[in-house]
Write a structure and sequence with these properties.
Beta-Lactamase; Heat Shock Protein 90; five-stranded antiparallel beta sheet; 26% strand; binds adenosine-5'-triphosphate; binds magnesium ion
């Protein structure tokens, strides 16, 4: 093959290709790299590999190993760094030695795959799988559990009327209230597994939010906190099931309050989304979205909790059931929307709910 052909192939590869020198600087790159990293070649060429993968010693270590041993590495997980806007994306790297004609190692070739879309698809797949499995078990068990619960509750109430001793009465009150808690949980669980049959109508999202905020205001005031609403008045109405959306925002706002510290502020922001357009089987033309953001400056969450956010029954709260987020996700997905959560332990949490506005 001639040089020109080599060069054409190099620039046409849709995955990123980097050539790294023995001094760990970037010697060559193809067009896909510029595209993936949202950066022009001049901003990283002849600079350290750390420009693109900052503070990831495992990547540099592997490059050094390839230089010394000539071994190849597949499936090296890394995070690519974009400058403008500053953000990271998941990448998968394949490293192999760059050999001269005398077989001496002159550098390292890194193949860079952008994993953003694949990760998103995996995330979307996972909760659905879990819900399906859960659905089969839940539907089978829910009725069986609720029936005897009714008996327990009724008997406890009868007994309470008979008993005169105050402290014994209190025990029975606990039986009744705990039975009610189990019953509430089962009803919520059944909601997770049933098809929703949405009753769609033109809905003003601000009205939905305001109704929830009125309900929840007291519990935030008890923590000396406050809501701050930043609404975009030009937001279009959306086709939605108002009651179901109330459920979603009630769950999300409750979570924000529960995570808030004393005097915490919870921002509720609405706007039209420019970045993300949903395309679905029933609406193949991407639609404009509205976004509702709920931002708290509360306790945030660690990596472990972030991973399990949408797993039913995963909770870090004493009295939590771990169903708020899975139910919210189901409702939002049934509206062809999406929920995105970012959180930093100790700093706070941002929840974004994207809903199609019906406008293109
Ligand atoms: N705003 C938030 N800040 C910090 N952690 C959060 C926040 N929202 C959710 N979480 C974490 O995610 C977990 C799951 O939330 P989810 O709403 O599904 O269940 P829950 O709040 O524990 O119980 P439930 O909502 O059923 O009463 C929570 O236990 C908490 O650890
Ligand atoms: Mg919750």
């Amino acid at each position: 093959m001639n040089d020109r052909l080599h060069q054409n192939i190099f620039y046409s590869i849709i995955d990123g290709v980097l050539l790294i020198s023995p001094a760990l600087t970037i010697q060559e790159s193809n067009l896909a790299i510029e595209d993936m990293f949202h950066r022009s070649r001049d901003s990283f060429i002849h600079r350290s590999l750390e420009e693109l993968f900052p503070r990831q010693s495992h990547v540099l270590d592997k490059v050094r190993k390839v230089l010394v041993t000539g071994a190849c590495y597949h499936d090296v997980e890394a995070e690519g760094m974009r400058n403008i806007p500053s953000s990271r994306f998941p990448a998968n790297l394949t490293l192999s030695p760059y050999l001269e004609s005398d077989d001496s190692i002159q550098g390292v070739v890194i193949l860079v795959k952008n994993m953003t879309l694949i990760r998103e698809l995996e995330e979307r797949q996972r909760p659905a799988d879990q819900l399906n499995k859960l659905g089969e078990i839940a539907m089978g068990m829910a009725h069986e559990i609720r029936n005897p619960l009714g008996g327990i509750r009724g008997s406890a109430q009868l007994l309470r009327q008979e008993i005169k001793n105050k402290s014994h009465q209190e025990y029975l009150d606990i039986v009744v209230s705990e039975v009610d808690r189990i019953d509430r949980m089962i009803r919520r669980m059944m909601n997770l597994t049933r098809p929703l049959n949405l009753k769609l109508k033109s809905t003003n999202i601000h009205k939905v939010l305001e109704e929830i905020l009125v309900l929840e205001k007291d519990s935030l005031t008890r923590k000396k906190g406050r809501f701050e609403q930043i609404y975009d008045p030009s937001l279009p109405l959306i086709e939605a099931d108002e009651d179901q959306l109330k459920q979603v925002f009630l769950n999300l706002i409750k979570n924000a309050i529960e995570a808030s510290r004393k005097g915490g502020r919870i921002q509720i922001i609405t706007r039209v989304s420019s970045g993300y357009a949903v395309k679905t089987a029933s609406s193949p033309i991407p639609q404009q979205n509205i976004v509702v953001e709920i931002i708290d400056s509360g306790e945030g969450m660690d990596e472990e909790t972030r991973k399990k956010l949408f797993t039913p029954f995963h909770t870090t709260k004493k009295k939590g059931s771990g169903l708020g987020l899975p139910i919210s996700l189901k409702i939002v997905k049934d509206h062809y929307g999406k929920i995105k959560i970012t959180s930093e332990k100790g700093l706070g949490t941002t929840v974004q709910v994207f809903l199609p506005s019906g406008q293109r």
